[in-house]
Amino acid sequence: MSTAVMEQPGQSGTAEPTTSGMITVTFRIRRFNPEVSADASWEDFTLEIDSKDRVLDALHRIKWEQDGTLTFRRSCAHGICGSDAMRINGRNRLACKTLIKDISPEKPITVEAIKGLTVLKDLVVDMEPFFQAYRDVMPFLVTSGNEPTRERFQSDEDRARFDDTTKCILCAACTSSCPIYWNDGQYFGPAAIVNAHRFIFDSRDEAGEQRLEILNDKDGVWRCRTTFNCTDACPRGIEVTKAIQEVKRALITRRF
Ligand code: SF4
Ligand code: FES
User: What is catalyzed by this enzyme (predicted)?
Assistant: First the structure.
């Protein structure tokens, strides 16, 4: 059942889990449809659901059973594609990796679009500025000379230098949790730097200097204030702030 609410979170009781694990939960979702109103508003949806289900399951149920206009992105539903990052109870998370039982379901669970990117509708934001910053750091292997006739060898030690940053799924949870990015959309943002790091520290790549120069820009790594929001937000457990620090150090020492 859906109810429009005037303002942000109050608290309302919900049922204790039954022996079957089913609980009654209220999802307070930030709705926005520019074809209907220029203003966003909160709307409550209450449903009975298994406490071990994920927030993504709840969003599907709401869309299928209560309001087909509810709009959100998702693809893999298993933490791989990175398309369903959203703010859940005020923190960036993937809806498909967030279990309802882990996020205080006795209170209304707030769900809203990630910050710092223009909301197009409900939980969907315009990802183009995010992907433009990603493209700008040349996120691909650059080599010169002839095509190799066999694989390019790399020691375990060299591979380990950028292992962490290979795990990025481009969900934007880090970039959209960064206060610098909220205040100034020109900053490359943590995700672009993570993906630059992945190639700068790859011993097979030859464009490290070029990428460092790109990030030496006024909107590059020096904008980072080391707040660690990005590291806390990353659903892949990447040490984002550490990667940014390593890129800064490489810029100073020119050793990578
Ligand atoms: S670094 Fe983590 S939070 Fe940032 S885009 Fe990649 S996977 Fe998402
Ligand atoms: S739907 Fe693919 S990561 Fe959540």
Answer: a menaquinone + succinate = a menaquinol + fumarate
CB of 25 sitting under 6 A from ligand 1: no
CA atoms within 13 A on the CB side of 144: 2
pLDDT tens-digit map of 151-190 = 889 999 999 999 999 999 999 999 999 999 998 768 999 9
Cα 256 to Cα 67, 136, 200, 208, 217: the distances in Å are 52, 20, 7, 8, 18
- Position in ligand 2 atom list of the atom nearest CA 169: 3
- Topology, domain 2-125: Ubiquitin-like (UB roll) (3.10.20)
Break the chain into its structural domains and give their ranges: 2-125, 128-253
Residue type, 223: R
180 in helix, strand or coil?
helix
Query: Is the pTM above the cut of 0.70?
Result: yes
The finding on whether 139 has its CB within 6 A of some atom of ligand 2 is no
Tens digit of each residue's pLDDT (9 = 90 or more) over 36-74 = 999 999 999 999 999 999 999 999 999 999 999 999 999
54, 74, 93: residue to mutate for ligand 2 pocket, most atoms within 8 A of CB: 74
- Name the CATH superfamily, with its identifier, for domain 128-253: Alpha-helical ferredoxin (1.10.1060.10)
Q: Is 159 helix (H, G, I), strand (E, B) or coil?
A: helix
Any ligand 1 atom below 6 A from CB of 169: yes
